[in-house]
User: What shape does this take?
Amino acid sequence: MDLGIKGKRALVCASSKGLGRGCAEALAAEGVSLVMNARGAEALEATAQAIRDAHGVEVITVAADITTEEGRAEVLEAAGQVDILVTNAGGPPPGMWPDWTRDDFIKALDANMLTPIALMQATLPGMMERGWGRVVNITSQSVKSPIGVLGLSNSARTGLTGFVAGTARQVCDKGVIINNLLPGIHDTDRAKSLDTGVSEQQGISIDEAKAQRCATIPVHRYGTRDEFGATCAFLCSQHVGFMVGQNILLDGGALPYTL
Ligand code: NAP
Assistant: This one.
C-alpha cells in the first residue's frame, strides 16, 4: 500500500533507539525526511546515518533533552516546518505509590504529558494553516489498564490521553489528525531494564524473567520495533483522515478486553 506521504517532513522525538527508532525507520522507508532527536549524540548520529544509507532521505539530528524547554526550543528551531510529529520520551521509573513525591510527579508529568502537549501546541498551528498534518503520540498500554509499579506513567499518560481526546476533535476539520499508539511489551532497552527489575526482585535470571513476562502475552513474545514503526507510519499516512483521537493498542493480545 502506498501511504502517500513521500516528500513529507517528520519530527520523531526520542528516536535513536527502541520504538522511536522503529517509527523513524518506517517513515524514512516511505520517503519521509526526518528530524531525529535523543540526548546521546553518538547513538543518534549512528542511527541517523544508518537511515540515510538505507533510505536516501534527508535526516537532521538534534541531540537534546526533549523534556526540557531549552531542548524543545532547539529541536523545534532545527525542525522548522513539520508535517508529521511523533512524540516520545523515556518512561518514568518504577516504584510504589506511597513513595512518590510531588517532585516525582512533576517530573513524570513534564516528560510524558506536558512535553508532547507543548510539541503539539508548537506544530499544530502550521499544520492547520497548510491543511495537512499527522501526530502520533507514543503512550502505553497503561492508559487502558494500569501497571501498579508504573503509577507515575499511568498518571502522566492518562492526562495526555485526555488532552488528545479533546484536541484531536478540534483540529481534524483542518486536515490534521492526532492519534495515540499504545505499546504493550516490546523488545527494547526499556523492556530489558524492566526484565532486570523483575529478575532482581524475584531472584531469577533475566531470561527467566523475560520468559515469565512473555507467558502473559497471548502471542508469547515481545513486540518488535519494526512492527511498531509500521503501525506508526500507517497512522501518519493519507489513509487515516477519518480516524480521529483513537488509542491504538499494540500488545500481542495481552489486555483481555472485548473492546
Ligand atoms: P528505549 O529503548 O529505552 O529508547 C528510548 C529512546 O528515547 C532512546 O533513543 C533515548 O535516547 C531516547 N530518550 C529517552 N529520554 C529522552 C529525552 N528526555 N529526550 C530525548 N530523547 C530521549 O525505550 P522504548 O522501549 O523505545 O520506549 C519508548 C517509550 O515507550 C517510553 O516512554 C516507554 O516508557 C514507552 N513504553 C515502552 C514499552 C516497551 O515495552 N518497550 C511499553 C510501554 C511503553 P537517549 O537515552 O540517548 O536520550
In short: The chain is about 45% helix and 15% strand. The pocket of NAP is lined by residues 14-20, 37-40, 43, 65-67, 88-91, 138, 140, 183, 185-186, 188-191 (CB under 6 Å). Strands lie at 9-12, 33-38, 59-63, 84-87, 133-138, 176-183, 247-250.
